[in-house]
Design goal:
The chain has 201 residues and is of the alpha+beta class. It has nine helices and five strands; from the N terminus they run αααααααβββαββα. The protein is globular.
Length: 201
């Protein structure tokens, strides 16, 4: 099944947030897309609010429904807070780690770099974006890919101290996944408890 490849601004306007990064359209038209987007709307139902939160999380991390459901079920069967474990699992995906390390300007770009075999984990090429990176593993750029313009541009001026669970080595163009992030350290504006309630219905 294909991923969403349509206008990202449309999705950002739907949720009223720049979930794909800075969005000029959202600042100009901060109302939902469509013919009646700027008119008064009916109040969203409780179910609708929960569904929207799940959709927002899926679009943010670029995950399809079946993958998302599988991650939720694993989180639900683990010990701990289900919603927090779900977000930690999403943060541990290889494409997300590549994005968080600044190797790619967006998660979509990170997914492409992984798929095109530009990324290595512990020195071995991994081309599966959903690969679950474990604490202690090192994610870096393949030697012959270090001169790629998209990678160089993304890394230029990137603040590698933003995420306390990652450590970057500029000389090797690689980062270590130090530990699973705490919920407070994950910057995404996602109300994970609503997602848990949705799947629990």
């Amino acid at each position: 099944m294909a991923r969403y490849t349509g206008p990202k601004s449309r999705i950002a306007r739907k949720f009223g947030e720049a979930i794909f990064g800075a969005d000029k359209v959202l600042s100009k038209r901060n109302y939902p897309p469509g013919q009646h987007g700027n008119s008064r709307r009916r109040k969203t139902s409780e179910y609708g609010v929960m569904l929207a939160e799940k959709q927002k999380a899926k679009y943010t991390y670029g995950v399809l429904e079946r993958q998302f459901r599988n991650l939720f079920e694993k989180a639900a069967s683990a010990n701990g807070i289900t919603g927090e474990i779900l977000l930690q699992s999403l943060e541990s995906r290889l494409d997300n780690i590549v994005y968080r390390l600044g190797i790619a300007p967006s998660r979509a770009a990170a997914r492409q770099l992984v798929g095109h075999r530009h990324i290595v984990v512990d020195g071995e090429v991994v081309n599966i974006p959903s690969y679950a990176v474990k604490p202690g593993q090192i994610v870096g750029v393949r030697e012959k890919s270090k001169s790629l313009e998209v990678i160089a541009n993304s890394l230029a001026g990137f603040n590698h101290s933003k995420y306390p669970w990652l450590e970057w080595d500029e000389n090797t163009k690689a980062g270590r996944y130090l530990h699973i992030p705490e919920r407070a350290d994950i910057p995404e504006n996602i109300k994970e408890q609503l997602i848990v309630e949705l799947y629990s219905k």
